[in-house]
Design brief:
The chain is about 75% helix and about 5% strand. It is mainly α. A hairpin with a 2-residue loop joins strand 1 and strand 2.
Length: about 190
């Protein structure tokens, strides 16, 4: 149901569904939240990347045996991955033009946000609240828009899309990290 019918003085008025009215502002808020999260992660990524490059150059690119350095490069990799995924997420959220687009576009992204959360929590626990808020907000938007258009959810397809996005981003990040630290073996 997209509208509510109300009878006033023997006339029927059609009132818009309150969920339909609140979806656009919530999507805009999610785009804002993604930008805010990206900014925080990029700042941390810059800090970790600068530190890693300094360590790498001091060891003439031969920090292969240092487990602490490998751990720091893995942290940088997780942050770069999170940034790439959030950029995809922001782009996809901005591309939404109809209610029907929401369930198709946003559903796969919710589980990806949870993956980001688990990957960077150890390095940035302060961002946990923002990622949980983003995931929850997007989940409620998907449910509200899905109920408005009476959508059916195909979780198998959603999981497949999530996996494909993660695989693509992981290849991009792996390439960036290997380009930045060419002599480092993982």
């Amino acid at each position: 149901m997209v509208a509510n019918l109300v009878s006033v003085d023997e006339t029927v008025q059609v009132l818009p569904n309150p969920y339909a009215l609140s979806i656009k502002p919530r999507l805009e808020y999610c785009v804002y939240l993604v930008g805010s999260i990206m900014e925080k992660i990029q700042n941390e990524c810059e800090h970790v990347g600068t530190s890693n490059l300094c360590t790498y150059s001091q060891n003439d690119g031969s920090a292969n045996d240092d487990p602490e350095f490998k751990k720091q490069v893995q942290a940088e990799s997780s942050l770069v991955c999170a940034t790439e995924i959030l950029e995809i997420l922001r782009h996809r959220l901005k591309s939404i033009s109809q209610f029907g687009d929401i369930t198709v576009i946003v559903s796969p992204l919710i589980s990806i946000i949870r993956v980001i959360h688990s990957n960077i929590y150890a390095n940035m626990p302060q961002i946990s609240h923002d990622l949980i808020e983003l995931s929850t907000s997007l989940g409620s938007i998907v449910m509200d828009s899905g109920s408005l258009i009476e959508a059916k959810f195909d979780f198998k397809q959603t999981n497949l899309e999530s996996t494909q996005i993660l695989d693509e981003v992981n290849l991009i990040v792996e390439s960036k990290i290997h380009k930045q630290y060419p002599n480092l073996n993982f």
